[in-house]
Write a structure and sequence with these properties.
The chain is α+β, with helices and mostly antiparallel strands. It has one domain (3-224). The protein contains 8 helices and 8 strands. Strand 4 and strand 5 (112-114) form a beta hairpin. Helix 5 (174-182) packs across helix 8 (210-224).
Length: 230
């Protein structure tokens, strides 16, 4: 097995390889871990073709279900195991794995930022191989946020859900965010995606389209809004 074969096999699903590393024996059972995620429209197109819009409400987590089904097939083809950032607790440390694989840094609002994709990317799973696979050197560029003096992401939220409080990373008020998105006043956030995320000048070519942004926001609200007492 070689890294290019892994990349090509993953790319055929609409997802992309997001780097990897060689974990220690005390971390996970395996010698090579390769992260899988998405950036750009291909994953959404593949998901939309497989799971029509009129059937997505039947599953509280349809994208996770699709991801697991697809990556289980990839893992079987490549002779690997598969791990996911969902399905817990306990949860796998995907954020720290992503930083370890290189190319991303924490942003002022919390999500990891990529020099090419900006904030418009995600990690969907990981492939774990029993053998040692040669991996390319991880990207070592500085965080794009270091050269962003204005940091418009911190001022774009209409509910001030991101409060830096003098630190490098903002505290995130989930309740205020969800309440705004669920309200008619938050229609722009609901259909276009998080305004703070959209304010970032990096990765503009990868901004989610309306259908994808609405899907994510709808599921976000459904999974975080307190149940009605009526």
């Amino acid at each position: 097995m070689d890294f290019q074969t892994i990349k090509d096999t993953v790319a055929a699903t609409g997802m992309i390889v997001r780097g990897g590393f060689h974990p220690g024996a005390d971390e996970i059972k395996g010698q090579t871990l390769v992260l899988v995620g998405n950036a750009g429209p291909k994953m959404w197109q593949a998901f939309s073709d497989a799971v029509p819009a009129d059937s997505r409400d039947q599953d509280p987590h349809p994208l996770d279900t699709w991801t697991k089904r697809v990556l289980e097939g990839v893992a079987a083809d490549l002779g690997a195991g598969a791990l996911y950032p969902f399905g817990g607790p306990p949860y796998q440390p995907f954020q720290s794995w992503a930083v370890r694989a290189g190319g991303v840094h924490p942003s002022p609002t919390g999500p990891l930022i990529d020099a090419e994709f900006g904030l418009w990317h995600a990690y969907r799973g990981a492939l774990v191989f029993d053998t040692h696979i040669d991996l390319p050197e991880p990207p070592s560029h500085a965080s794009p946020c270091e050269s962003c003096a204005d940091k418009p992401c911190l001022d774009a939220c209409p509910t001030d859900a991101f409060d830096p409080k003098g630190s490098e990373r903002a505290d995130y008020d989930v309740k205020a965010c969800v309440a705004h998105i669920a309200d008619p006043a938050g229609r722009d956030c609901f259909t276009g995606g998080c305004l703070a995320r959209r304010a970032c000048p990096w990765g503009r070519d990868y901004v989610y389209g309306t259908e994808q942004a609405t899907f994510h926001m709808k599921k976000f609200v459904a999974n975080h809004l307190p149940p009605s007492s009526s």
